[in-house]
Amino acid sequence: METKIRIAIQTKGRLNEDSVQLLKEAGIKMVSGKRKLISAAKNFPMEVLFLRDDDIPQSVADGLADIGIVGLNEVLEKKQNVNIAKELGFSRCRVSLAIPKSDEYTGLNYFESKKIATSYPVILQDFLTEKKIDAEIHEISGSVEIAPGIGLADAIFDIVSSGSTLVSNRLKEVEVVTPSEAVLVANPELSEEKQAILDELIFRIESVQRAEGKKYILLNAPNDKVDEIIALLPGMKSPTVLPLAEQGWSSVHSVLNENDFWEIIGKLKAAGAQGILTIPIEKMIM
Ligand code: PRT
Ligand code: ZN
Domain 93-180: which topology? Predict the structure, then answer.
């Protein structure tokens, strides 16, 4: 029988859509139809297991799944024996300490003898121990941010993304304890065959990630301006220069970062480039 790798992803929630999208961009098609607990891929030796994010670290450590996509915050909290195979760059957030807005923050000693509400007691305890702060941890599973307002705690330790939840609860972020993002985790004892499938998956993910924020650019230029124009293009290697049917003109192709796109476009135009076209890049293979 053909070896398959089993990946655990979140059934629904913040990670689900991006996890499915990542597999899709890696060229992995899932058998359509109703979402079941487990779903086979059509064109890749993979099975997809849908779980709550809280259960993913353990299912990978135990071998129920071989790999999984989960927030780093859950990996750190659950302390299961899994390897981080790849940082995925989505669902970025941070796990932070926050206190009432009206309080003056005096530094970490603020938390001495205070009561802190959180759904991440393990990460918080590790941090407090490391910083030698003696505080009381009050574990609650949801709506942590309302705890100070109702007198349940003095401070909170929770996930922050835009910060608007803190603002609307009259809290302020005072310490970022750990940044987090979605990560691909793997069982540390994969068979050789499964490791090879994981390597192929990582290769594909990296090709997609490399193309992110990049544009393919094509432009026409008079031959005597080509050197000047090439000097403006960062590119991967040297740009492609092709003769146009019209005498004395060339077509120049290269790759641009989206970030410096407009700045470079202005310079290219000033240098005599015409008919500038940009095209999104799906994948970049190195
Ligand atoms: O049902 P299941 O158990 O699978 O899902 P869940 O409800 O436990 O998790 P879910 O889907 O809410 O989040 C999954 C993962 O997304 C988390 O473990 C984080 O790694 C990541 N993530 C990214 C976030 C956020 N951003 C986020 N903003 N998880 C939660 N939040 C919450 C946070 O708890 C707080 O209430 O959003 C609020 C803060 O957001 P801002 O933008 O107001 O700062
Ligand atoms: Zn959860």
Answer: D-Maltodextrin-Binding Protein; domain 2 (3.40.190)
**pLDDT over 60 at 168, yes or no:** yes
Least confident of 31-45, 93-107, 118-132, 264-278: 31-45
Confidence at residue 236, expressed as pLDDT on a 0 to 100 scale: 62
Report, as an integer, the average pLDDT of 160-180: 98
For ligand 2, a single-atom ion, the residues with CB < 5 A are: 53-54
* CATH assignment of 213-280, among 2.60.40.10, 3.30.70.120, 3.30.365.10, 3.90.226.10: 3.30.70.120
User: pTM score, two decimals?
Assistant: 0.90
* pLDDT, tens digit (0-9, with 9 covering 90-100), for 132-164: 999 999 999 999 999 999 999 999 999 999 999
Among the bound ligands, the one closest to the CA of 178: 1
Which tokens in the block code for residue 130?
Answer: 């490391």
The CA 52 to ligand 2 mean position distance, Å, reads: 6
Confirm or reject: Cβ of 93 under 6 Å from ligand 1.
yes
